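Hello,

Our lab assistant flagged a job as stuck in the queue for most of the afternoon. It eventually completed. Since we weren't sure the result was trustworthy after the delay, we are filing this so someone can double-check. Below is the sequence as submitted and the structure that was eventually returned. Let us know if re-running is recommended.
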Amino acid sequence: MDYILMHKRKKTARVSLDETEGYIREIYDVYAPEHIPVGAAGPEGTLDRAGLSRWWHRRAIPASRAGLREAFAIMDIDSPEYLLEKCWGLSLSDQYWMCPEGSSLTWDDVNFFEHDFSEDVGNILLGGTSPSRNISLMSPDNSSDGWLRKKWSLSGGKRVLIKGGSGVYRQEPYNEVLACRIMERLGIPHTAYSLLQQEGAVYSVCEDFITPDTDLITAADLLRNEKQPNHLSEAEFFIRICEGLGLENPRLFVDQMLTVDFIIANEDRHTNNFGVIRNAESLEYMGMAPIYDNGTSLWLNTRTDKIRPLSPKLPSKPFKPTHHEQIKLVSSFEWMELERLDGIEEECTAVLAGSEYIDEERRKVICGGIRERIGLLGELAGEI
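-- returned structure --
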């Protein structure tokens, strides 16, 4: 079927899309090359079929999503790409979408930022059962990324993302809140997370920081869009790209992100969960995105008696394989006042006390580990 790739109200390209398999069969015309999705361009910087197919495929729910097979059985569908086509690729992370050629649909008619949406798909993806009525597949959850169970919800007119926990300890929601408490004290711009108890489970909740006028451009797409010089590390390459886009102090952003990740022993800061914000109409880059998605941290899948907070081998991403190596990429700690973290152990203990899956011993080990890593950070910062 033929579609017009739209960027909000802007016609960008006319394409043929295989809705079931999720690939672009053909690109007929490019109307606005400057609006090509970042990361979808081919080797020469132009829109090509392979690049756009990769971009569209990455837009769908990943196959690694927890409970996806069971959710698809309830909805009687076969693929994430089928779901993506049912909402025309609309997202709450940017303003791109696919309009069927010849349709009278407009962005103002269908976008999820300004219109209510069904939570049927989200409820099923979160582990719920099928509603009694027919399931509405028009949902921003069709284009949500990540492997954790999650859903978008409407709360007081705001779009909020609800995410669950995993494994024995169901720790991710609490980790999000603990990371926020640390960043609040250090003055690091971040997305605020809170806890929600619903039907016997605890979830993290955060408000969408993208608006009807902005796009989230991930670091992965920025890095994919340009060729990395051999003499630059990936961290320095990302900083240089951001500086070239006119963004203010991306080096400070990277320094602060790597610092908080060191404290919480974040294992999964991949290049798809940090980035920058762009105006969707003017294409002006506005700033670094607030730090978000910190749940895969604080030894969440490590047995309590196996936690080693000061181990030099704690794994990290995205720039170095261990935190001991990655923290050395921080160019300056002049912005950091570690004394502002005095008493954070007690604050974190109070947060974790609300979990029925984290016993007192584990709380002591995790919160004591935070204190130990703050102390180690102070030592390492003095050496840089």
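-- support follow-up --
The delay was a queue issue, not a problem with the job. The result is valid. Residues 2-150 form one domain. The chain has two domains: 2-150, 214-383.
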